[in-house]
Amino acid sequence: MISNNLWKTNQQLAVVCLSHPFVRGIADGTLPQKSFAYYVGQDAFFLGAFARAYSIAAAKAPDWKTFELFHSLAGGVKQELQLHHSYAAKWGVNLETIKPGFATRRYTDFLVATSWGSNIGAIASAMTPCMRLYAFLGQELAKPEIPEHKYSEWIRTYSSQEFQYLVQRLESVIDRYVDNIQEAESTYCYAMLCERDFFQAAWEMGDKVNG
Fold first, then answer.
1. Domain that holds residue 180
2. C-alpha dist (Å) from residue 30 to 93, 142, 160, 189
3. Which residue, 1, 31, 104, 134, has fewest beta-carbon neighbours within 10 Å?
4. 118-145: pLDDT as tens digits
5. pTM
6. 185: Cα within 13 Å, side-chain hemisphere
7. Number of domains the chain is built from
8. CATH number, domain at 24?
């Protein structure tokens, strides 16, 4: 499977994200709330672009089944945003006034540009890393069981079978429609690098906020 090979090729970056201090802080509940609040705002902005990319991909779908698939995946984004809104309400984050940081803007610009300029195989290659990485992080952080602290719901969401199912559905688009392996490899890797930089930016900005 193309999607499986792409994921295996980028395992080192996945492990880097898993060991990142921001993710480790989520794992054990020690991440400062202000750091996580900054991340929530940035990720909410990112998810808005993610939903738009799904909509563009749906418009390019070659058949009704794939069209419906992208719309159902957009529904999964809505569920993620509901989680973010619950955190935002709890910690006083106004998601309507969030300004994207450099790493966030670079990632969203890449997603939207890929969606407009590429076919759905390439679009799925750009979008899958986020989904597959978060499923990986959620499942790893849930071992041997989901801990009980203020970030438990984050771990619960991304370790769930429902989220895993969404990832697999998106990966099926890669396996069916990628027609340029080199393009898919480059696109997938760039998205993984954006994920790494997204966590790093949140960590650095959290340090500034908490400093």
1. 2-210
2. 19, 16, 22, 30
3. 1
4. 999 999 999 999 999 999 999 999 999 9
5. 0.92
6. 6
7. 1
8. 1.20.910.10
